[in-house]
Specification:
Distance between the termini: 133 Å
Strand order of the largest sheet: 5-6-4-7
Largest sheet: 4 strands, antiparallel
Number of domains: 3
Oligomer: single chain
Protein backbone atom coordinates (compact mmCIF):
# COMPACT_ATOMS: atom_id res chain seq x y z
CA UNK A 1 0.00 0.00 0.00
CA UNK A 2 1.59 3.29 -1.18
CA UNK A 3 2.22 6.16 1.16
CA UNK A 4 2.71 9.85 0.55
CA UNK A 5 6.40 10.92 0.67
CA UNK A 6 5.37 14.24 2.20
CA UNK A 7 2.82 13.37 4.94
CA UNK A 8 3.57 9.64 5.09
CA UNK A 9 -0.14 8.80 4.96
CA UNK A 10 -1.73 6.07 2.87
CA UNK A 11 -2.82 6.77 -0.71
CA UNK A 12 -6.50 5.78 -0.95
CA UNK A 13 -9.54 6.29 -3.16
CA UNK A 14 -10.63 9.22 -1.11
CA UNK A 15 -7.09 10.65 -1.06
CA UNK A 16 -5.51 9.74 -4.46
CA UNK A 17 -1.80 10.18 -5.19
CA UNK A 18 0.37 11.84 -7.84
CA UNK A 19 3.61 10.21 -9.12
CA UNK A 20 6.61 12.29 -10.13
CA UNK A 21 7.55 11.59 -13.80
CA UNK A 22 11.27 11.68 -12.97
CA UNK A 23 11.97 10.23 -9.52
CA UNK A 24 8.70 8.30 -9.16
CA UNK A 25 7.99 9.81 -5.78
CA UNK A 26 4.33 9.65 -4.83
CA UNK A 27 2.51 12.43 -3.04
CA UNK A 28 -1.14 13.18 -2.32
CA UNK A 29 -2.99 14.99 -5.06
CA UNK A 30 -3.69 18.10 -3.01
CA UNK A 31 -2.28 21.58 -2.71
CA UNK A 32 -0.35 20.86 0.51
CA UNK A 33 1.55 17.73 -0.56
CA UNK A 34 1.99 18.43 -4.31
CA UNK A 35 2.46 22.22 -4.03
CA UNK A 36 0.05 22.60 -6.96
CA UNK A 37 -2.84 25.01 -7.26
CA UNK A 38 -6.42 23.83 -7.47
CA UNK A 39 -6.53 24.68 -11.18
CA UNK A 40 -3.36 22.63 -11.84
CA UNK A 41 -4.79 19.69 -9.93
CA UNK A 42 -8.02 19.92 -11.93
CA UNK A 43 -5.99 19.95 -15.19
CA UNK A 44 -4.01 16.86 -14.19
CA UNK A 45 -7.22 15.02 -13.35
CA UNK A 46 -8.77 15.98 -16.68
CA UNK A 47 -5.74 15.07 -18.92
CA UNK A 48 -3.51 12.10 -18.14
CA UNK A 49 -0.98 13.27 -20.79
CA UNK A 50 0.19 16.10 -18.58
CA UNK A 51 3.44 15.52 -16.70
CA UNK A 52 4.23 16.42 -13.13
CA UNK A 53 7.58 16.55 -11.40
CA UNK A 54 8.28 17.19 -7.79
CA UNK A 55 10.07 20.30 -6.64
CA UNK A 56 13.43 18.46 -6.47
CA UNK A 57 13.19 17.14 -10.04
CA UNK A 58 11.71 20.14 -11.76
CA UNK A 59 15.12 21.18 -13.28
CA UNK A 60 16.00 17.73 -14.56
CA UNK A 61 14.94 16.00 -17.77
CA UNK A 62 13.59 13.99 -19.48
CA UNK A 63 10.12 14.44 -18.06
CA UNK A 64 7.47 11.73 -17.80
CA UNK A 65 3.80 12.05 -18.16
CA UNK A 66 2.13 12.57 -14.83
CA UNK A 67 -0.27 10.04 -13.65
CA UNK A 68 -2.74 9.74 -10.84
CA UNK A 69 -2.13 6.76 -8.68
CA UNK A 70 -5.34 4.94 -7.91
CA UNK A 71 -5.13 2.13 -5.44
CA UNK A 72 -6.56 -1.28 -6.24
CA UNK A 73 -10.18 -2.06 -5.47
CA UNK A 74 -9.25 -4.45 -2.70
CA UNK A 75 -7.21 -1.82 -0.89
CA UNK A 76 -9.10 -0.42 2.08
CA UNK A 77 -9.31 3.26 2.94
CA UNK A 78 -7.42 4.53 5.86
CA UNK A 79 -9.72 4.27 8.86
CA UNK A 80 -10.98 7.63 10.11
CA UNK A 81 -9.76 8.33 13.57
CA UNK A 82 -12.77 9.40 15.69
CA UNK A 83 -12.58 10.40 19.33
CA UNK A 84 -15.78 8.79 20.62
CA UNK A 85 -15.55 10.34 24.08
CA UNK A 86 -15.10 13.82 22.67
CA UNK A 87 -17.94 13.30 20.18
CA UNK A 88 -20.21 11.96 22.92
CA UNK A 89 -19.22 14.85 25.15
CA UNK A 90 -20.02 17.38 22.41
CA UNK A 91 -23.35 15.72 21.66
CA UNK A 92 -24.19 15.62 25.36
CA UNK A 93 -23.35 19.30 25.71
CA UNK A 94 -25.54 20.22 22.74
CA UNK A 95 -28.39 18.08 24.03
CA UNK A 96 -27.99 19.54 27.51
CA UNK A 97 -27.97 23.05 26.07
CA UNK A 98 -31.12 22.33 24.04
CA UNK A 99 -32.85 20.76 27.05
CA UNK A 100 -31.91 23.71 29.26
CA UNK A 101 -33.27 26.11 26.66
CA UNK A 102 -36.52 24.17 26.40
CA UNK A 103 -36.80 23.87 30.18
CA UNK A 104 -36.17 27.59 30.59
CA UNK A 105 -38.94 28.41 28.13
CA UNK A 106 -41.19 25.83 29.78
CA UNK A 107 -40.51 27.28 33.24
CA UNK A 108 -41.21 30.79 31.98
CA UNK A 109 -44.50 29.63 30.46
CA UNK A 110 -45.32 27.70 33.62
CA UNK A 111 -44.65 30.74 35.80
CA UNK A 112 -46.75 32.93 33.50
CA UNK A 113 -49.72 30.58 33.53
CA UNK A 114 -49.23 29.95 37.23
CA UNK A 115 -49.52 33.69 37.87
CA UNK A 116 -52.62 33.85 35.68
CA UNK A 117 -54.11 30.89 37.55
CA UNK A 118 -53.44 32.64 40.86
CA UNK A 119 -55.25 35.72 39.55
CA UNK A 120 -58.20 33.60 38.45
CA UNK A 121 -58.34 31.86 41.83
CA UNK A 122 -58.28 35.24 43.58
CA UNK A 123 -61.10 36.46 41.35
CA UNK A 124 -63.13 33.31 42.00
CA UNK A 125 -62.60 33.68 45.76
CA UNK A 126 -63.67 37.32 45.54
CA UNK A 127 -66.77 36.32 43.57
CA UNK A 128 -67.59 33.64 46.14
CA UNK A 129 -67.33 36.17 48.96
CA UNK A 130 -69.48 38.64 47.02
CA UNK A 131 -72.07 35.94 46.32
CA UNK A 132 -72.17 34.98 50.00
CA UNK A 133 -72.67 38.63 50.97
CA UNK A 134 -75.42 39.04 48.36
CA UNK A 135 -77.09 35.81 49.48
CA UNK A 136 -77.03 36.97 53.09
CA UNK A 137 -78.45 40.36 52.10
CA UNK A 138 -81.07 38.64 49.96
CA UNK A 139 -82.15 36.53 52.94
CA UNK A 140 -82.31 39.65 55.10
CA UNK A 141 -84.33 41.51 52.48
CA UNK A 142 -86.62 38.51 52.03
CA UNK A 143 -87.23 38.37 55.78
CA UNK A 144 -87.86 42.10 55.88
CA UNK A 145 -90.21 41.80 52.91
CA UNK A 146 -92.14 39.00 54.61
CA UNK A 147 -92.33 41.07 57.77
CA UNK A 148 -93.55 44.09 55.82
CA UNK A 149 -96.11 41.97 53.98
CA UNK A 150 -97.37 40.66 57.31
CA UNK A 151 -97.59 44.17 58.71
CA UNK A 152 -99.29 45.52 55.60
CA UNK A 153 -101.73 42.63 55.67
CA UNK A 154 -102.47 43.34 59.33
CA UNK A 155 -102.91 47.05 58.57
CA UNK A 156 -105.22 46.29 55.65
CA UNK A 157 -107.24 43.97 57.83
CA UNK A 158 -107.42 46.58 60.56
CA UNK A 159 -108.42 49.22 58.01
CA UNK A 160 -111.18 46.94 56.75
CA UNK A 161 -112.36 46.45 60.31
CA UNK A 162 -112.41 50.20 60.89
CA UNK A 163 -114.30 50.82 57.65
CA UNK A 164 -116.73 48.06 58.49
CA UNK A 165 -117.21 49.48 62.00
CA UNK A 166 -118.19 52.78 60.42
CA UNK A 167 -120.97 50.92 58.62
CA UNK A 168 -122.29 49.14 61.71
CA UNK A 169 -125.46 51.33 61.76
CA UNK A 170 -126.11 51.12 57.99
CA UNK A 171 -128.30 48.91 55.84
CA UNK A 172 -128.48 48.69 52.07
CA UNK A 173 -131.65 48.53 49.99
CA UNK A 174 -131.10 46.93 46.60
CA UNK A 175 -133.09 46.32 43.39
CA UNK A 176 -135.11 49.55 43.59
CA UNK A 177 -135.38 51.10 40.08
CA UNK A 178 -134.35 54.72 39.70
CA UNK A 179 -137.17 57.23 39.29
CA UNK A 180 -136.57 60.65 37.81
CA UNK A 181 -138.90 62.24 40.38
CA UNK A 182 -138.19 59.83 43.19
CA UNK A 183 -137.98 60.71 46.87
CA UNK A 184 -135.52 58.36 48.51
CA UNK A 185 -136.63 59.35 52.02
CA UNK A 186 -140.29 58.52 51.27
CA UNK A 187 -139.39 55.16 49.76
CA UNK A 188 -137.35 54.29 52.86
CA UNK A 189 -140.25 55.36 55.12
CA UNK A 190 -142.61 53.09 53.17
CA UNK A 191 -140.23 50.19 53.75
CA UNK A 192 -140.08 51.01 57.49
CA UNK A 193 -143.86 51.07 57.69
CA UNK A 194 -144.07 47.82 55.73
CA UNK A 195 -141.72 46.14 58.24
CA UNK A 196 -143.28 47.88 61.27
CA UNK A 197 -140.09 49.77 62.12
CA UNK A 198 -140.23 53.16 63.87
CA UNK A 199 -139.55 56.07 61.51
CA UNK A 200 -137.46 57.83 64.12
CA UNK A 201 -134.81 55.10 63.83
CA UNK A 202 -133.97 56.44 60.35
CA UNK A 203 -131.18 59.03 60.46
CA UNK A 204 -130.52 59.52 56.73
CA UNK A 205 -130.85 57.83 53.35
CA UNK A 206 -129.06 58.30 50.02
CA UNK A 207 -128.91 56.49 46.67
CA UNK A 208 -125.35 55.51 45.75
CA UNK A 209 -123.74 55.43 42.33
CA UNK A 210 -124.21 52.04 40.71
CA UNK A 211 -123.61 50.08 37.53
CA UNK A 212 -125.60 50.89 34.38
CA UNK A 213 -127.13 47.41 34.12
CA UNK A 214 -128.26 47.39 37.77
CA UNK A 215 -130.17 49.91 39.90
CA UNK A 216 -127.99 51.78 42.37
CA UNK A 217 -128.36 50.76 45.99
CA UNK A 218 -129.88 52.99 48.66
CA UNK A 219 -127.80 53.33 51.81
CA UNK A 220 -129.76 53.99 55.00
CA UNK A 221 -128.22 55.14 58.27
CA UNK A 222 -130.09 54.00 61.37
CA UNK A 223 -129.84 55.26 64.91
CA UNK A 224 -127.92 52.29 66.32
CA UNK A 225 -126.90 48.67 65.85
CA UNK A 226 -130.09 47.40 67.52
CA UNK A 227 -132.25 49.20 64.99
CA UNK A 228 -130.14 47.78 62.17
CA UNK A 229 -130.56 44.23 63.47
CA UNK A 230 -134.33 44.71 63.70
CA UNK A 231 -134.46 45.87 60.08
CA UNK A 232 -132.41 42.85 58.94
CA UNK A 233 -134.61 40.44 60.94
CA UNK A 234 -137.81 41.97 59.54
CA UNK A 235 -136.46 41.77 55.98
CA UNK A 236 -135.67 38.06 56.42
CA UNK A 237 -139.13 37.28 57.82
CA UNK A 238 -141.11 39.43 55.37
CA UNK A 239 -141.07 40.37 51.69
CA UNK A 240 -141.45 43.66 49.90
CA UNK A 241 -141.66 44.32 46.16
CA UNK A 242 -140.91 47.31 43.95
CA UNK A 243 -144.64 47.96 43.51
CA UNK A 244 -145.02 48.40 47.29
CA UNK A 245 -142.73 51.46 47.39
CA UNK A 246 -142.84 52.91 43.84
CA UNK A 247 -146.29 54.16 42.68
CA UNK A 248 -145.12 54.27 39.07
CA UNK A 249 -144.10 50.59 39.19
CA UNK A 250 -147.47 49.06 40.23
CA UNK A 251 -146.95 45.94 38.11
CA UNK A 252 -143.32 45.42 39.12
CA UNK A 253 -143.24 42.47 41.51
CA UNK A 254 -139.44 42.30 41.72
CA UNK A 255 -138.26 41.70 45.26
CA UNK A 256 -136.50 44.51 47.12
CA UNK A 257 -133.51 43.26 49.13
CA UNK A 258 -132.43 44.68 52.47
CA UNK A 259 -129.02 43.66 53.78
CA UNK A 260 -126.26 44.73 56.10
CA UNK A 261 -123.97 47.38 54.61
CA UNK A 262 -120.44 46.11 53.90
CA UNK A 263 -117.21 47.44 52.43
CA UNK A 264 -116.23 46.46 48.87
CA UNK A 265 -113.63 44.01 50.17
CA UNK A 266 -116.08 42.29 52.49
CA UNK A 267 -118.68 42.16 49.73
CA UNK A 268 -116.16 40.44 47.45
CA UNK A 269 -115.25 37.92 50.17
CA UNK A 270 -118.93 37.28 50.90
CA UNK A 271 -119.69 36.73 47.20
CA UNK A 272 -116.78 34.30 46.79
CA UNK A 273 -117.91 32.38 49.85
CA UNK A 274 -121.41 32.06 48.40
CA UNK A 275 -120.00 30.75 45.10
CA UNK A 276 -117.89 28.15 46.91
CA UNK A 277 -120.91 27.13 48.95
CA UNK A 278 -122.99 26.68 45.80
CA UNK A 279 -120.31 24.46 44.25
CA UNK A 280 -120.03 22.30 47.38
CA UNK A 281 -123.80 21.91 47.66
CA UNK A 282 -123.99 20.98 43.97
CA UNK A 283 -121.57 18.06 44.35
CA UNK A 284 -123.00 16.72 47.60
Amino acid sequence: MSKCDICNKIISKSMPGLECSKCERIVHLNTRCSSLTNKQIAALKAASSLEWTCLECQRESPRRNSSIVIPEENEEDEPVQINAKKLLSNVSKEVEKAIKSEMREFNESLQFYGAKLDEIIECVDAFKQTIKILERKNVELSNRNNDLETRVGALEQRLQEIEQEKLENYVEIANVPFQTTESVDKMVEKIAVKFNQPLETIKSSQRQQGKKEQPAIIKVKLCDVTAKEKWITAAKSGKITVADICPSERNNNAIVYIREAMTKTNKSIFWQAKQELKIKQKFK
